[in-house]
Amino acid sequence: MDYIKRHMETHILQADQTFKGLLVTGARQVGKSTLLRHVFPERSYLTFDDPILLTQARTEPGLFFRNHPYPITLDEVQHIQELFPYIKMACDASDDKGLFSLTGSQSFRLMQHVSESLAGRIAIFELSGLSMREIDGTDFCKPFIPSEAYIKERGRSAKVHEDIWKLIHRGSYPALYETDVDWQLFYSSYVQTYLSRDVNDLMKIKNHMKFMRFLTAMAARTGQMLNYSKVAEQADITVATAKEWTSVLEASGLIYILQPFSNSALTRAIKTPKLYFRDTGLVCYLTKYLTPETAMNGAMAGELFETFVISEILKSFSNAGIDYHMNVTYYRGKDKSEQRESKIDLLIEDGDVLYPIEIKMSANPKLTMTNSFDVIEKIKKHRRGLGVVLCMYPEPLWLNEQTVALPIEYV
User: Which of 211, 213, 249, 254 has the fewest CB atoms nearer than 10 Å to its CB?
Assistant: First the structure.
């Protein structure tokens, strides 16, 4: 397989010049170690999937860096909390930059030993699967903040896909873009590896059958508000367990929990977060949509389409080295003066500007799809940016002076 250029490369090289170390987090198989080995080919590379190295690091951490001098790349560092005090000491003892490049299959926020030891000393990046831009081979790598300038610039490289459902169904893991990979076998092996390794690392779950039912129940609810009670009922577990296991999925990079927009002017806003899987191919596997055609025509088509678009938007931020957690939310609520419920699929915040985004699996965008965008006018200290309908229409289409329909490839 030829290496697919990752948009994060430039930001990683910049961070290596200004920080003592850097950490790339993300789910298994998204290409973390491949990325670092490509960017730093001259560095020693050690993986703690190797039980011998893992034992050495745990039993003789003080001698580890005598045997393995830095600069060095360490893979799957969530396994070796014993080394982090020594990494900290090495960072503090040297003025050199770029001493360590690390990867981890768990969220930095939940790797307590990392955050306590290395806060302020390392740059942190979150790598997802391949983005649509990376698959298409485009160099455009700005975050999706849909100003008129962005739309004009993005239009120069945007490639409209004749069958976007092949991409949605295939998924974004780099290994899937090798010519001889069997889709079903890949995801079957992925799930089994995930259950036996990441799940056990984060929590010693004894009943893997129940966890599989839980994982499948969650996949069936991607793109929906997160209802722990319904998930727990379907998986035959308690609500407390459902919440605990949700944190496992989030920590290991399989899902993203999209928070609702909060503002005192929107007193009737729903406070429930929404659930999105990071990879639509995994959702298709877990929900038994075994072909692009069955996914496109199935009951979950709208949710799969929305999940794909949200994932691409998040990738556009993280690949640009930007933490998107404070930039993206959604809105749903009912204003006192109206009987209908208002809904905005995504709000992108850039300074004091809010960009409302509607996501529609339609090739016939209409202005009525954006009726809820007016709710932004009630929010003090924020201005409404350009409203966008992301859809299947093949080119930009202005619906009025404030609203444009864009092909999803413009993400």
Answer: 213
Residue 99 near residue 90 (C-beta atoms within 8 A): yes
Between 21-35, 87-101, 324-338, the lowest mean confidence (pLDDT) is in 324-338
- Nearest Cα residue to 227 out of 211, 326, 302, 235: 235
Query: What one-character-per-residue DSSP string does 161-214 give?
Result: -TTHHHHHHH-S-GGGGSTT--HHHHHHHHHHHIIIIIIHHH---S-HHHHHHH
Residues of the chain with CATH 3.40.50.300: 9-126
Q: What number of CA atoms fall less than 13 Å from residue 24's CA on the CB side?
A: 30
Tell the CATH topology of 9-126: Rossmann fold (3.40.50)
Do the Cβ atoms of 86 and 65 come closer than 8 Å? yes
pLDDT at 349: 94
Res 337: pLDDT = 53
Task: Give the side-chain half-sphere CA count within 13 A for 313.
Answer: 29
Alpha helix ranges (H) inside 183-300: 183-193, 200-202, 208-219, 228-235, 239-251, 280-286, 292-297
CA distances from 94 to 70, 89, 99, 178, 201 (A): 11, 9, 9, 42, 32
CA-atom Rg of the chain in angstroms: 22
Q: For residues 198 and 205, give the distance between their C-alpha atoms in angstroms, rounded to a whole number.
A: 11
Torsion-angle region of residue 379: left (phi > 0), alpha (psi -120 to 50) or beta? Answer: beta
User: How far is 278 from 32, CA to CA, in rounded Å?
Assistant: 15
Q: Which two tokens stand for residue 391?
A: 């859809």
For 44, 135, 392, the CA distances from 69, given in Å and listed in that order, are 8, 36, 52
Provide the 10 A C-beta neighbour count for residue 314: 24
pLDDT at residue 34 tops 50? yes
Contacts for 302 with CB less than 8 Å, ≥ 6 apart: 223, 361
pTM: 0.93
Say how far apart CA 8 and CA 5 lie, in whole Å.
9
